[in-house]
Amino acid sequence: MTASITDHVCTECGLCCDGTLMADVETYGDKDAELAEDLGLETDYDNDKGSLVISLPCSALQGTRCSAYPHRPITCGSFECGLLQATRRNLFSMEEALDIIGDTRKKVVKITEILSSFAEDDTSLPLKERIMEALQTRPSPELSAASRELARMIGEYFLTTGKRE
Length: 165
What we know:
165 residues, 5 strands, 7 helices, 10% strand, mainly alpha
């Protein structure tokens, strides 16, 4: 049953790979870093982390699915967001988890639509960086409100392991 939960939740989501949840992914050791580079993933050395990181959005992501899934780096295969963990613990049904993913993806689409009105929107950057750059360019109450709501959902469902009371 666990594989089924992972198959459904992860392949419908992709938020961990598209730059919505995080800006990059730290590799686990030289072998993992080598694999990321062999797969042609964009990487960079992070002085703060002292390791090679995979830049997000990941170039292997196609829609919400990883095109390198069977050969993905260890760091990618070991990540489990809070929503996946909570669904495994039966804190959410599969339907609830998929609804949360759908609602979150709708918020990402709304933000992306707002960002498209900014002349300097660099879609190769993680979403949070795109938002910060846009807001530095010009104030946008609509973008600020939408990004706060997305950040709330990410914090509540994806970067924690508990269910909202």
